[in-house]
């Protein structure tokens, strides 16, 4: 298998819902959704902010698209909207928008910077203070931060990530034969298989913003690098890593000998699977959970113990603020529902957004689409 074929396979692994055609089909079908208050035709699943304060979605009306936050339209109507992002506190919403052949980035209804031939990877910093995106002009890609273009241009730029405090920006860039991870214009470590852009995984910041970890591909093998230094053994494939809350431990899925394992720190946890999506640490750092495939069915695992049953698809798990409880979205047939601490909730939907904790941490917040209308749902932990 060639390096490019291996990389394509890895991208399917990391974007695991792509392995289930019906999930992509459901996510792409237009439905009528209120997205907070109004009933309109949706162009995709709603997004709930991390603290549960905002529900944001792209809506379609005829040949135009717009963005609603808690039922209120942000900005104008556009020919196309993409890269929708919302800050963790729900106060800032960012998206890329096209009118005719020109793209702009819009933040809370206001255009950020100028128009470009193409825009990708629009993101907002965790504190909501900064906006960054990749723009293209004259065949070159460059980063625009808070409306100001950076001087450096590259052939390709992707996977922008703000550090937790919003001060630094990490990304992957390729110029000529060089493909590597950068932090504010400075390369981290070395080049990784420079002939293949996707041979570097998405950068992940530690909670304190001091470290950047990512998956790297060299000489036909994948491993995890931390601040440019090898931080794991080599494997056939790896997922993007996750930092523990204290920043001292990395967790990631790794494939070896046709099976997937969850590597926590220097050693794997007991158990093997047919696929692992990504690791999620509990807030107190004492547990790690992940969605995995067992045969052709999805399961969720906490440490090495299954939580709940087997499903057609299962989303990434979410821990309660006190780390005691675990919840995830699951799909069986055409029904979407929550599974909390292994028990299936009685509510059934046609589609469910991501799940978030309420601002006070006592409730779960999500948007559920049922019978063509989306509703904001809050249930106690």
Explain the overall architecture.
With 381 residues, the chain is mainly beta. Helices cover 5% and strands 51% of the residues. It contains 2 helices and 41 strands. The strands form 9 sheets. Strands 1, 2, 3, 4, 5 and 6 form a 6-stranded antiparallel β-sheet that branches. Strands 23, 24, 25, 26 and 27 form a 5-stranded antiparallel β-sheet that branches. Strands 28, 29, 30, 31 and 32 form a 5-stranded antiparallel β-sheet that branches. The longest helix is centred in the N-terminal third of the chain and has 12 residues, at 3-14. It is globular and about 50 Å long. The N and C termini lie far apart (47 Å).
Distance between the termini: 47 Å
The whole-number mean of residue pLDDT values reads 86
Please indicate the percent range of residues in DSSP E strands (runs of 2 or more).
Answer: over 45%
Shape: globular
Category by helix and strand content? mainly beta
How many helices? The count is 2
Provide the gyration radius in Å: 20 Å
Helix-residue proportion: under 10%
Topology:
Elements: H1 3-14, H2 21-28, E1 31-33, E2 40-42, E3 47-48, E4 55-61, E5 64-69, E6 72-78, E7 80-86, E8 93-99, E9 102-107, E10 110-116, E11 118-124, E12 131-137, E13 140-145, E14 148-149, E15 156-162, E16 169-175, E17 178-183, E18 186-187, E19 204-205, E20 212-218, E21 221-226, E22 229-230, E23 237-238, E24 242-243, E25 250-256, E26 259-264, E27 267-268, E28 275-276, E29 280-281, E30 288-294, E31 297-302, E32 305-306, E33 313-314, E34 318-319, E35 326-332, E36 335-340, E37 343-344, E38 351-352, E39 356-357, E40 363-370, E41 373-380
